[in-house]
Amino acid sequence: MKRLFLFLIAINIQLNSYSQFHELGAFIGGANYIGDVGASYYVYPENVALGLIYKWNMTTRYSLRASALFTKIKKSDYNPVDTNRFKRKYRFNNPIQELSVGVEINFVDFNLHGSEREFAHYLYLGVSYFQHDLFYHDLVTLESIKYDTARNFALPIIVGVKTNLNAKTVVGLEIGARATFTDNIDGSNPVGSFKNSTALKFGNLNNNDWFVFTGLTISFTFGDLPCYCK
């Protein structure tokens, strides 16, 4: 217990030696999903995506980050890349609201003290919690019929590059894939009262869906300048 107490004090002293420096900004870009409807391009930002991003820069290398993003996935089989899907002619709309928290890691020091332009590549790892509609595809009309709303988790992996325009403004470009814990963004694997209806299921039921956010971030800094003392 004594060692744990001393360890917590040491961590607290270390963190306090870095004055907190905060960023608050917006994400503007696009989104796409990867699943059993339409073409499966990995990065294809065809749907508008917007959101808010907050960062707590603990050091020049590490930041705690939280975000709230929104998009509406629109997808159809009307794409000649996959002939079988093109003939099937399924389509759907699914709004997604995502909350994410995690750690952003800069590959080089990103020091916001000076007036010189800084560049840094970064990696973000965390966990996401998102909401989406549940629906199935009517076999006659081919329309998607909503029957419920679901909430699921995903593991986001984001890579990007950022630079400071001045002492108060940071802009970045990033691509972030989300590996979800559901196969139902596209309605290919209905659950609840529909889970035993094999006629409503299609595609690869062993693979979960993914969605990807691609876009620009612009954030404004506030709070005390970090010390970054060693």
Brief digest:
By secondary structure, the protein is mainly beta. The protein has a single domain (20-222), classed as Porin (Beta Barrel), CATH 2.40.160. It has helices at residues 2-16, 83-88; strands at 21-34, 47-57, 62-76, 91-106, 119-137, 144-166, 169-180, 210-222.
Structural notes for this entry:
The protein has 230 residues and is mainly beta. It has one domain: Porin (Beta Barrel). 9% of the residues lie in helices and 53% in strands. The chain is built from 2 helices and 8 strands. The chain has helices at 2-16, 83-88; strands at residues 21-34, 47-57, 62-76, 91-106, 119-137, 144-166, 169-180, 210-222. The chain has an 8-stranded antiparallel beta barrel with strand order 1-2-3-4-5-6-7-8. The chain is elongated, with a radius of gyration of 21 Å. Mean pLDDT is 87; it is low at 4-19.
How many domains make up the coordinates?
Answer: 1
How many beta strands in the DSSP annotation? 8
Helix content: under 10%
CATH architecture: Beta Barrel
Task: Report the C-alpha radius of gyration, rounded.
Answer: 21 Å
| Derived structural class | mainly beta
Q: How large is the count of helical segments?
A: 2
Q: Main β-sheet, in a few words?
A: 8 strands, antiparallel, barrel
Give, in order, the helices and strands: HEEEHEEEEE
Terminal Cα span? 28 Å
CATH fold annotation: Porin
Mean pLDDT rating: 87
Defining traits:
8-stranded antiparallel β-barrel, mainly beta, elongated, 8 strands, Porin, 230 residues
